Amino acid sequence: MDRNKKYATTILLLVFSLACALPFTIQRTEDFIATAAEYTVQAYRTQTAPTATPVLPTATETPLPTATPWLTATSAPLPTATPRPCNRAAFISETVPDGTSYNSGQTFTKSWRLRNDGTCTWNPEYRLVFYSGDQMGASNSVKLNKYVKPGEQVDFLVDFKAPSKAGTYTSYWRLQADDGSRFAQVFTLIKVAAPFFAVTSIQISATPAAYSGICPVIVAVNAEITASTAGKVTYRWEVSDGVNTTTSELKSVNFDKQDTKSVQLDLDLDSDGSYQVRVYIAQPNNQWFGPRQIDIDCN
Questions:
Q1: pLDDT band at residue 275 under the 50/70/90 scheme
Q2: How confident is the model at residue 187 (pLDDT cuts 50, 70, 90)?
Q3: Architecture of domain 199-298
Q4: What class has domain 89-192?
Q5: DSSP string, the chain
Q6: pTM check: above 0.70
């Protein structure tokens, strides 16, 4: 039931209630219906309907894209050519490759071939000078003793001696101009192997080596032992007369470097014959040296 019908029904009920309460008055049906209708219209007009407020979408203005101005082309400056210095050298080649091994005390000559890569001519006062590292017996400097124009090549030679101890050695050298200024750098790197310790030779002598006379006679036997480097040599003598052989007790001699040292054995010979004397090196060689023959003729 809609709202208008509700209002009409309410009014009718009110009218009937009044009719019952008031003195009865005859009213025409048409008038009653018209009056009820008028009341209904008035009640509807007095009803305040809620006002609908339309919600309109808020228009958001999107800013127009800002036009990006064209980039201004900037010309990069052309590189400026760096002038060549007065003194400059370029490495060409060398002898004695780096890492070459030498024995202790061995001599060698190293050479470097360089090109004058500057704008000044090298004169005879230019030189290659020792700069740092291991000098290895070389001189302090080597003079050029000639003119070398820009673009020309020249060899510098230096004489070296390998150090006595095993290891790796590096020698740095630089070119020096006539005004004392230095430029460029070269170097040599060598290895010195650990020396092999050994007895390299023994020379045996006897005094007298031949004897004729009254016996007994004392013969001094001497052995010159040469060792390759520092170390301890152990040895013993052996003497044979062709029938009997005798040996001495084991003895030793110390070397603090490559050297030659003498050891001696005194023989007391009381009978004639040919004697053979030799030396056994127990350490480091495990080797016999000799023999030396001694001839005795007893009267």
A1: very high
A2: very high
A3: Sandwich (2.60)
A4: mainly beta
A5: --HHHHHHHHHHHHHHHHHHHSPP----HHHHHHHHHHHHHHHHHHSPPPPP---PPPPPPPPPPPPPPPPPP-PPPPPPPPPPPSS-EEEEEESS-TTEEE-TT-EEEEEEEEEE-SSSPB-TT-EEEEEEE--TT--SEEE--S-B-TT-EEEEEEEEE--SS-EEEEEEEEEE-TTS-EEEEEEEEEEEPPPPP-EEEEEEEEESSEEEESS-EEEEEEEEEEESSSEEEEEEEEEE-SS-EEEPPPEEEEESSSEEEEEEEEEEE-S-EEEEEEEEEEETT-EEEEEEEEEEEE-
A6: no
